[in-house]
Amino acid sequence: MTKVDGQVVFLNGTEVAPGDVVDIEVVFSKKKFAEGRVLRVVSKSVIRQEPFCAHFGVCGGCKWQHIPYTLQKDQKTRQVHDQLVRIGHLPVTEIQPIVGSEKTTFYRNKLEFTFSASRWLTPEEVNSETEYNQNVLGFHVPRRFDKVFPIEHCHLQPDPSNAIRLFLRDYAHASEWPFYDHVAHEGFFRNVMIRTTTTQQVMVVIQFARPIQDQIDSTCQALLDAFPNITSLNYFVNSKRNDSYQDLEPICFHGKPYIEEVMEGLTFRIGVKSFYQTNPEQAFELYKITRDLAEIKSTDLVYDLYTGTGTIANFVAKQARQVIGVEYVPEAIEDAKINSEINQITNTLFFAGDMKKVLDTEFIERHGRPDVLITDPPRAGMDKEVIEVIRQAQPHRIVYVSCNAATQARDLALLIDEYHIDTVQPVDMFPHTHHVENVVRLTRK
Ligand SMILES: C[S@@+](CC[C@H](N)C(=O)[O-])C[C@H]1O[C@@H](n2cnc3c(N)ncnc32)[C@H](O)[C@@H]1O
Fold it and tell me: 20 to 30 A from 272, CA-CA: which of 39, 88, 181, 423?
């Protein structure tokens, strides 16, 4: 982002750094902001560092890797300050120093790669004499559903992620079966998801476009022979136009249909379709911060809204009298219950449904007023109706975990007549990206 004659201009395409001098072309202009395209970097900022990845500039993954991590963290803290204080005008007296991620590469536990018969070519590749094979396995180019660029080495996920992807790429090239064509909706090899854990368990989920059983079996078997340490090998047959698998049934080819992550002695079971925080080490830090700020007593009833697979609910259960988790996705609630069961946690209750339908005054009367309420909504934040029920329920403390400080600020504005904002704690879950998690504690006036 930059400013031209006082107007904010968002820049697309070439990655820029604070202090760069660039020529831009404005491609779109409105009263409040404009969008521009970088034509040429005239001089590079002194703060720039050398990007570590060969795919920098094409890939949408680690867009800030040319900016030192300390400056990335400063920028994320500024983002939180801007949303809560400068734009949101909230009564915030202090923002705690951001908690950085110890790992800044290989911190993700889940990646999805796409097979495609339509390779993305960079301008240099277009202008070269080389004939490139159109069949690739890699990431979609940002904003292009049909184009994929090949990944040689990705710095986001630890071993054996890269090795598994390269093996499948070579296997698919050597086979007679085609890579998927997203425009013609034809082909066989479609997509692969790889999940790693701190327990060394590995899950692979392959999507095939057609139910050709012999070829599915021989692909899975070849992968397993090459990587006998895969503990959960699954596949989908997806003949739909879109890549989403939430409405499909996974088939387990080898091992268990889930993997397990361990946090502070608690085991969390992660199925093929389950959500789990993608930076597990930093998720542990985030949950500890949430639990510390919640200051739960053994007599407390705790609500954990937007509980997902019940990770926070189960994580804080030992401190509380009872924890109630509410979440939209029924499968996630099933996982949450299993996670309580396998950890011998008996003081949790989980409910599935849309928050604004489930959490009403009748629900509060039936289950009791929460002493402490933890909420971790999606990027869109909470519905007004949900905030109104929270106000009526009058918990002593609210801990609001958010991945979008803008919607968090909007929601906090509806609570500050009855609550003090007493702690603001940003946490960086995703180094080299603009994303920042922010935890706010509110105490009742
Ligand atoms: C940011 S995630 C939080 C996950 C969980 N706290 C964790 O740390 O793993 C937000 C969750 O809200 C759920 N969700 C989104 N919209 C919802 C709604 N309207 N009602 C209930 N849950 C919803 C999503 O399915 C997702 O699991």
Answer: 181
